[in-house]
Amino acid sequence: MTAGRALRIASHHLARIGEEARIALPRECCGLLLGRETIDGWQVTELVTSPNVAPADRHDRFEIDPQILIAVQKRLRREGGAMIG
Predict the structure, then answer these.
(1) Which of 1, 19, 23, 72 counts the highest number of beta carbons within 10 A?
(2) What is the pTM of this model?
(3) CA dihedral over 23, 85, 79, 38, signed as positive or negative
(4) Contact in structure between 45 and 82 (CB atoms under 8 Å)
(5) Quick count: other Cβ atoms within 10 Å of Cβ 50?
(6) CATH code (residue 60)
(7) At 25, is the secondary structure helix, strand, or coil?
(8) Measured between alpha carbons, how far is 64 from 68 in angstroms, rounded to an integer?
(9) Residue 82: what are its φ and ψ, rounded to 5°?
(10) Tens-of-pLDDT digits for all 85 residues of the chain?
(11) How many CB atoms lie within 10 A of CB 82?
(12) CB 84 within 8 A of CB 34
């Protein structure tokens, strides 16, 4: 088996993800990981949070707000970068 490419994420991003998850409990939290490709994988450079707009069962399902998703996609096309998670 070969080693996969790394996903690098700073501790302050991990802390924010943990905080968003605590706030959302008992529901799923939502968000996007933005970043860039590096030689050995991906580097997360920004987090974008989103309300969970899943129509039902938000405790074990999630859906990112389509308006946020489209806005981020447009910005990435304009400014560069990638949605990596």
Answers:
(1) 72
(2) 0.86
(3) positive
(4) no
(5) 19
(6) 3.40.140.10
(7) coil
(8) 7
(9) -145, 150
(10) 446 789 999 999 999 999 999 999 888 899 999 999 999 899 999 999 999 998 887 678 889 999 999 999 999 999 999 999 9
(11) 14
(12) yes
